[in-house]
Amino acid sequence: MAIDWFTVAAQIVNFLILVWLLKKLLFRPIMNAMERRELGISGRLRQAHEQMGEAEALQQQYQRQLQQLQAEKEAALDQAKQEAEDEKTVLLQQLNEELQRKKAQFDSDIRQQQQELDEQIASALTDKALALSDHILTQLADQTVEQRIIEQFLGHLAALPQTEQSEIKQTLHQHGATLITRFQPDDATKRKLLQWFLDFVPDCSLIFIQRDTLICGIALEAGGRSWEWTIERYLGELETELIKLPGKTI
To answer: 161 lies in a domain?
Structure first.
């Protein structure tokens, strides 16, 4: 079989022309389109990776924020618990102080009521004792008892401090002395009193007055002033001492 080399060469040329045409008109656009598509895909993939990175960073940021919020929440809860405990402690302390204050006030009121009751009892006892003492001493009072009281009175004047004695002497010297007794003293007692006052204050005038309201004793009046030594005064001093008793313990 004979080979037609011209035909073979023509077919080779045609094939090469076809390949060049395909490459020029078909393969190149396809390749360019594929390259553009690949570039687009690469770009989208790169953009996707970037977005994924941003998403991961955002997720990490959100995670940190969630952790921070959780920590702040726990801190706020701890602070709230501590403040509640502190407020509870303060309220308990205030309640305890209020209870102590009310207890102290209650104790004070009880002591005051007890003191008032003691004073009422003491006052009643004092009134009864003074009334009984006044009755008994009034019944027992006579000239003999009064004589002893007069002697006690003279001794009391003689025992006064010098400054007080000087003041009394000056008053007696200027105004004279008035002696008041319940019972009329006898002549001997009058002479004794007159001599005592003359020794006490020379040139002292002396007047005797009898007064039934005086409960057994003697009173000295001069220049608007008065000194006395009587059962009535003794009862007054006794009353003063008895009134002081409720301040102690009955």
So the answer is: yes
